[in-house]
Amino acid sequence: MSYTCFDVEIADGVAHIKMNRPEKRNAMIVEFWAELPEIVRDIDENAKARAIVLSSTGPVFCAGIDIGMFQNDVAGPGDKNHPQYGAHFYQKVKYLQASLSALEDCRIPVLTAIQGGCFGGGVDLITACDMRYGTEDSFITIYEINVGMTADVGTFPRILNHMPEGVVRELAYTGRKMGAEECKMRGLFNEVYSDHATMVSAVMDMARDIATKPPLAVYGCKRAISYSRDHTTQDALDNIAVWNMSMLIPSEMMEAMMAGQQKRLGKFEDLPIVQDKTGT
Fold first, then answer.
1. pLDDT tens, position by position, for the chain (280 residues)?
2. Does the predicted model carry a pTM greater than 0.85?
């Protein structure tokens, strides 16, 4: 299937989703918000891959939300005194939030490779992923303050999981750029690479390695980490106990141990295809 904003390739258990509008600095236009969750859910729910890599093309990773959306789509009725203005705006922002939450909600890990600038909505995007990697020339900026906005699509509740509150406040209030090395130092980036090709190659290798692990166990790790982040320690301990009580598969454990001893790749079952609402 062809998309306006993305190219998709699947090989070796890894789905590579590439933003493909470098001439527009990969700005997030109307089609972006529909296509991204559609692609992610198709990969996840139909068990087409065991890991996802999200990358970009051109000198800029993502210029953020296309400003035309605010004029033509997000705001709805142009008059703030219009009775439907606030309700329409709220509904649209929830839609945008859900589009990016598809990355966090899917069962498989999502790794993202960032080159050049990552502006505004691009920061919302990368913070919804499991792991982030950057080139030496990459940077993030919570740019919304520079256009008179408060970031509302996902940056704040997620970036606070990686950086101290005071640093996040500084970025939000000033809109300053944070370079790759500082992003790594602060805990947002896992690693920094010299150039785009080297980074994408390394991130694809990481994703392929993840794809060799037992998919159900990887899914359990993703779910348990996210749950632990958002709940108390006691609730998280109980949750993982119930998860393993329900999901631990002795045959998968035995295969993992035998594969390790025999120095071979394990033979593991893919995650089940997600059934539709009819149960078929």
1. 899 999 999 999 999 999 999 999 999 999 999 999 999 999 999 999 999 999 999 999 999 999 887 666 665 556 667 778 888 889 999 999 999 999 999 999 999 999 999 999 999 999 999 999 999 999 999 999 999 999 999 999 999 999 999 999 999 999 999 999 999 999 999 999 999 999 999 999 999 999 999 999 999 999 999 999 999 999 999 999 999 999 999 999 999 999 999 999 999 999 999 987 555 5
2. yes
42 in active site? no
Catalytic residue among 124, 130, 159, 210: 124
Our answer to whether residue 270 is catalytic in this structure is no
Asked if 120 is an active-site residue, the reply is no
Range of the domain at 233: 215-261
Which residue out of 38, 45, 152, 170 is catalytically annotated?
152
Pairing of strands 117-119, 131-135: unpaired
237 and 177 together in one domain: no
Flag whether 270 is in a domain. no
Instruction: Pick the catalytic residue from 65, 108, 142, 159.
Output: 65
Residue 186 has phi, psi (to 5 degrees) of -80, -15
Question: For this structure, is 269 an active site residue?
Answer: no
Which one, of 51, 47, 63, lies nearest residue 17 by Cα? 51
What distance in Å separates the CA atoms of residue 99 and residue 157, rounded to the nearest whole number? 15
